Each structure stands twice: as C-alpha cells, then as structure tokens.
C-alpha cells in the first residue's frame, strides 16, 4: 500500500481531519490502481530494499507484492551481466539514468532483457529512488532480426554486398593505412552456370549455402576473426581481410581453395566437385577508394579464370 503522511489536528478540526483522511485514503487507492494499470514495472526503492512494487513489477520479477517488498533489485540480476549502477541513482535529484540489464524471473527462471530507468525522488528523510522496468526482450529480438535481414544475404546467410562495401569504406577511412594492411579476396565458383543448368537451381542453392558455410568455418578457424565473408552477387563472394598483407591474404585464399576442392559438396543429386577461382589485392597507400582495390582483385580473378580456373592470382602491390 502507498502510504501518505497525515498531519495532526486539534479537536475542533477533527471533522475536517476525518474528511481529509478519507480523501487521502481514496486518493491512495486511486493512485495504487493507476500504478497497477501501468504497462511497466514500478518500484520505490531505498538504498537497501524495495518499499513499493506495482503489479507490473511483480509480474516481471515473478514475485507476490508482499514477498517482493524487502528484497533488492540486484537480487534479480543475472550474475554475469553488467552490474546495475544502482548507487549512482541516489547521487542527485532531477536526473535519471537508464541501463539495459538481464533480470531473472524468480518464479519461472526465465531471463528477460530490461530497460531500467532510475531517478531519485524528492522525499524528505529516507533517500529513495523510483525504478521503472520495461521488458524490451521482444523489441530487441525484432530489431536484431531486422538488422540481420538488412545486412545479410537471405539465401546463404553471408553478409550482403551493401554491408561488405560499408565495412570496406570504414577500413578505407582509417588513417593508419600504412601501418595496418588491408587485403581483399574476390571468389567466383567455377562453372556454376553448368551446375544450375544440369542439376537445377535447387542444387545450385545447396552449393551456394555449403560454400558459405565452409567460408565462415574457414575464417573462424584460421585466426581471421576480423575478416568478413560476403556474397556480392550470383556465385561471386568477397573476403575482407583487415590486418593481412597481400602475401598473407594470398596464402589464406590458397588454403581455402585447396580445402574446397578437396571435399565434394553433398547435394540432393549426389556429391559434386566444387572449385573456385580467386583474385587477391592489397590496399595501396595511394588508393582513394575501395573500388580501386576491388578492380585490381577483379582483374586478378579474371586472370585466374583465363589461366584455367581453380587457382589463386594475387596482384602485386
């Protein structure tokens, strides 16, 4: 129950006091109903414990109101999440702070991502803060899904052309281009049109998906965590390799080419031998745009195809 402080009255004002008490009780009940109807959790919290909790807070934290009062908001925080800056909320009036943390529902054990907004209340005596809890788990999932859709290729799950070029632009803007090498590898699946024409587009899709899976797995196991693997069109893929010079990137590309050629791709029409031609180029100190690097890699890729396919060609820096 939300408690209001009642003032003292003399005997002559007892009738007025009774009316005032009734009015305050009515106001208190109305305020409690209003707070319980709010679509977010509301806590009134001292430095040591919860003093008040609305229905929303009880539901989010999995507690009955009576059991929640006396506990601490930090009791519900997942142990390995970033600590809630609870004490800072008591520092000053008129300011609020917000933070995203994972709280655990004590009844179901379910973890939910919460936006927590805290601000000190202007109450005399005991220092208290108002804590607002908003469940943003589903919102974040939707945002992440939309972001994933905007930066990845729907069929293969590789990054798409737009995102790859965006990341490449960021690398190009860095001022330490001489100290930090940056190379690219342009990959093209050999005779992919033949695969589509002979076995059908469904098998072609299987090849594209497997090629992407192998690309991701290769980068993850080759000390290339910062590299980006993208599908930039049809059967053409791109690897952005920051921190790798031409020799290192060419060696990486050759290793991937050998592994790809050495293991057939399993499809609904049986195993297929899949190879790739790869062109590699490194950023030069005078490159003004990513397109200039990509054009050199494309020239190298053309040479790899013209000289027999299933090989790596690197353009000298």
UniProtKB/TrEMBL annotation:
InterPro entries of this UniProt entry? Diguanylate_Cyclase, GGDEF_dom, Nucleotide_cyclase, PAS, PAS-like_dom_sf, Rev_trsase/Diguanyl_cyclase
- One example GO MF annotation: diguanylate cyclase activity
What residues does the GGDEF domain cover? Answer: 180-317
Under catalytic activity, the entry for this protein gives:
2 GTP = 3',3'-c-di-GMP + 2 diphosphate
Q: Which NCBIfam families match?
A: GGDEF, sensory_box
PANTHER family cross-referenced by the UniProt entry? DIGUANYLATE CYCLASE DGCM-RELATED (PTHR45138:SF9), REGULATORY COMPONENTS OF SENSORY TRANSDUCTION SYSTEM (PTHR45138)
What this protein is called in its record is: diguanylate cyclase
What is the organism of origin for this protein? Notoacmeibacter ruber
């Amino acid at each position: 129950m939300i408690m209001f402080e009642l003032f003292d009255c003399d005997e002559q004002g007892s009738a007025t006091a009774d009316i005032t008490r009734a009015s305050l009780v009515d106001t208190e009940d109305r305020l409690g109903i209003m707070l319980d109807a709010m679509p977010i959790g509301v806590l009134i919290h001292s430095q040591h414990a919860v003093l008040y909790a609305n229905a929303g807070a009880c539901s989010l934290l999995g507690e009955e109101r009576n059991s929640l009062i006396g506990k601490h908001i930090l009791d519900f925080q997942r142990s390995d999440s970033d600590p809630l800056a609870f004490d800072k909320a008591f520092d000053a009036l008129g300011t609020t702070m917000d933070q995203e943390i994972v709280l655990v529902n004590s009844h179901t054990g379910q973890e939910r991502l919460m936006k927590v907004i805290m601000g000190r209340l202007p109450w005399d005596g005991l220092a208290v803060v108002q804590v607002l809890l908003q469940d943003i788990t589903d919102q974040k999932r939707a945002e992440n899904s939309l972001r994933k859709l905007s930066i990845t290729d729907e069929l293969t799950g590789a990054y798409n052309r737009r995102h790859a070029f965006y990341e490449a632009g960021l690398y190009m803007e860095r001022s330490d281009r001489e100290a930090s090498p940056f190379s690219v590898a342009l990959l093209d699946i050999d005779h992919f049109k033949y695969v589509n024409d002979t076995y059908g587009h469904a098998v072609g899709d299987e090849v594209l998906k497997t090629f992407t899976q192998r690309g991701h797995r290769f980068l993850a196991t080759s000390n290339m965590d910062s590299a980006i693997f993208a599908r930039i069109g049809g059967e053409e893929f791109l690897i952005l390799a920051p921190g790798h010079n031409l020799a290192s990137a060419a060696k990486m590309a050759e290793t991937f080419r050998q592994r790809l050629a050495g293991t057939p791709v399993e499809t609904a029409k049986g195993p297929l031998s899949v190879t790739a031609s790869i062109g590699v180029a490194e950023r030069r100190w005078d490159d003004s745009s990513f397109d200039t690097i990509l054009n050199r890699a494309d020239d190298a890729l053309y040479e790899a195809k013209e000289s027999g396919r299933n090989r790596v060609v690197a353009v000298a820096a």
